[in-house]
Amino acid sequence: MKSIKIHKNDNVAVSLENGNVPAGHKVALCDIKRGEEIIKYGYTIGVASANIKSGEHVHSHNMRSSLSGVSSYEYTPQNVGTETKKPRAFLGYKRKNGRVGVRNEVWIISTVGCISATATELAKRAQKYKTENIDGIYAFTHAYGCSQLGDDMEMTLSALYGLSCNPNAAAVLILGLGCENGNINEWLKRFPDFDADRVKFLNCQDVDDELTVGEKILEKLCALADDDRRTLCDASDLVIGLKCGGSDGFSGITANALLGKFTDALVSEGGSAILTEVPEMFGAEQILMNRAVNKDVFENTVNLINNFKKYFLRYGEPVDENPSPGNKEGGITTLAEKSLGCVQKGGTAPVMDVLAYAEGAKEKGLSLLNAPGNDLVASCALAASGAQIVLFTTGRGTPFACPVPTVKISSNTNLFEKKSAWIDFNAGVLLDGEDADAVADRFYDFVLQIAEGNIKTKSEKLDKSSFAIWKDGVTL
Length: 476
Hints:
The chain is of the alpha/beta class. The chain folds into three domains: 3-64, Archaeosine Trna-guanine Transglycosylase, Chain: A, domain 4 (Roll); 105-229, Ribose 5-phosphate Isomerase B, Chain: A; 233-461. It contains twelve helices and 21 strands. β12, α3 (184-190) and β13 form a beta-alpha-beta unit. α1 (116-126) crosses α4, α2 crosses α10 (375-384) and α5 (255-268) crosses α12 (436-452). The longest helix has 20 residues, at 295-314. It is globular, with a radius of gyration of 23 Å. The protein starts with a strand and ends in a 24-residue tail after the last helix.
């Protein structure tokens, strides 16, 4: 049976082919006694719940999680200085505020779920104003914005505001109903600074015919967007979101490792990357903490992890029950195992900042974003924090789209061939022996082609109108 040992200290390997141990699953490299640690990636991913013999399948039937609740951590910084390189160039849209978009779109963002149908109808009517210089006209709808209280309401407002600031939107219509508690006036109280030329507001209850009025506003916004042209930009203008979902036993070896190389290359050229899915840092958080650029960032990372654990515990949920049925079928047994594969996407770059949910990226380099692991919620959170592109690795496959180009990277070749309508890039070639640096260079060029608009992601051909918001609170 062919297998791959990831780290010299591992006592399990990953099966490369189906047999007594399914492909992507773990095989013991030695006898492991009950209660002993299972080591993968050089770190503990759980403990044996039974005696395991060398060559035996290691999974849920004979191992368990060893994660605990809120923890204490020590700052033991590593020297992870990033090499500085001349940034590569691409053609993008330079906005007045200095940010750069990779698409030139007109967006309708509804403040409340009650007007989702109105927003969708306005997007349909506005298609007549689309020109060859406008990449698309989209309505982003959701189920929230009213009957929410406290921090729950603040999270919705922050997410919608953050989305409106994404540089892929050349112009935005904020569409409100009027009586919702997340109404436009509440928006303006919290976020008074916006580009009055590119962001317009309409309360449907304030006018006789919201469709006619809204269409006239969109006609003007489309004319504004039509004036924009791509100009020369460089990689330091990029903010890239990092996300994984539906992982398998190969994700941490191929797709996530590929994104790690990409992240290091982007950061070395002055660009920015955002890593999220906080629960999928549990078990690997010390690795990120040791890369914190200073003590403040370390402490913010500790708070990020422990506050998310408290969020789980507040609802009576364990902190170690994350791997989905698909993850487990693909060979991932525990949350720590998934997390150690997940954080590979952040490469080896220093952690420069920790962002609140939907907070815009401020620092160049790698930032950590507070958001859950849910694919739709986390990807939309990345868009709300300013990511122009989301890189999404998967060992299982998914067709979903978020508001920005969402690049699907398969961890294995079988998935790439089976779901060619979903997957944009195959990292499974790394299992076939292709040189990792050569694949990483090819992938970087591929991302720049997407940024230039020369390549549209598979997900951009699908409906991306739903905006998933993280909810945490009582609904009235």
